[in-house]
Structure formats: C-alpha cells, structure tokens
Amino acid sequence: MPVTLVFGDAEATPDEAARNVFEVDFWGAVHVSQEAVRFFREENSPQGGRLIQNSAAVGLVTREGLAFYGAAKHALEAFTETLSKEVNSAWNIKITSVLPGGFVTDITTSGQLIPQHPAYADDSNAVALVRKMFIENASMEAMNRLGCGDPAKGVQKIYKLSKLPDPPLRVLLGRDSNYMVKEWHTQLGRETEEYAHWSDSLGFEVDK
C-alpha cells in the first residue's frame, strides 16, 4: 500500500518503497492539480480558483533519512512553480505551495521505516542520530513535547492564505521551516557568489 513517507538511509531504501512515496506525494498531487486547473478554467469560469499544494520544508531543504520523501517534495515544488508560470493570468487561477515544518500528526507512525544499513549504524553518524530521534519521538505526544506545530492552527493559516487576493507562490509554516530555508538560502547565496566566476567565458572560442 502506498505511503506518504519513507524513512531510511538513501543507500538502503528499496526502489519499491521510494516509488510508492512518489506515487502519492508527487503523482497524486500532479493528477489532482491537472484536473483542478482544467475545472477552474473550463467549469468555474470566470471565477477561476485557488490551488494550494501541501508540500514540505524538505521540498527545499533535505534532511537525513528523508531522501525520497524530500525528493518527491522537490519534484512537486518544481512542478508547482512551472504550472504557476504556465497558467494564463486571465484564467484567475492562484497557485501556492505550502511548506510546513514539523506538525503533530500521525505521519511518522503511518510511514515506513526502512531497516538500517550496517555502514550507517555508527551512533555518531547523522543518519543514525536522526533515526534515533525519529523512532523515539514518533508518537504525537512526543512530537508535541518537541514543540511541533498544532495542525489546527496551521489549517487556520492556510484558510487565511486562501482569502488573500494576491497570494505568494510559497508560504513557510512553522519556525523550523523558516529556519531551515533561511539557512539554506544563506548557504546557496554564499556558494553562488564564491563560484560565480567559474561561469565566465564558458562559450566556444571563435576564430578571429
């Protein structure tokens, strides 16, 4: 049965488990999005509509143990951004991707835990540390103690988003989500500046 989350070392995750995540988190969302755009344009004209994707912070910033969940969300981010650029503004279809961080839900207990690869079993390994935290804090009670967000409050923000006349392409939900993305953005900017000169003079030499 397809699941929305698989946790395990990237090297040890079976293809079937990884593909199951993509079936739900990527292809499921893609098919709904395609039908939503068609409906908004052809049957809900001229009102248009709002398409709000449930993505994740790991759709921009990866975490150990979540290689394929993150990959599916990265793919969804690319699809959603492209779709937002392709729809005609005259159709009045507003598209936003919501990127939550940690919220108190059953996603960890309903997900699939992949047996650990022996090479990653060292307790000092980042994957092993995250796995330990993942297993020990899988219950909703433990997630609450860690300070994960209240999903009811998250839904209120999404409802507020649906009422904005000019919504953004992306909305981060949760302090952890904001922190992760800001850190990633800073690193990306630093590395871009440091290696920008590598892109100079990459064209073919022209004989004069």
Automatic annotation (TrEMBL):
Domain of life: Eukaryota
InterPro entries listed in its UniProt record: NAD(P)-bd_dom_sf (IPR036291), Sc_DH/Rdtase_CS (IPR020904), SDR_fam (IPR002347), SDR_oxidoreductase (IPR051911)
PROSITE patterns reported for this sequence: ADH_SHORT
Sorted UniProt keywords: NADP, Oxidoreductase
SUPFAM superfamilies: NAD(P)-binding Rossmann-fold domains
This protein's record includes keyword Oxidoreductase: yes
GO MF term list: oxidoreductase activity
One Pfam entry name: adh_short
PANTHER family for this protein: SHORT CHAIN DEHYDROGENASE, SHORT-CHAIN DEHYDROGENASE_REDUCTASE FAMILY PROTEIN
Sequence similarity: Belongs to the short-chain dehydrogenases/reductases (SDR) family.
Protein name: NAD(P)-binding protein
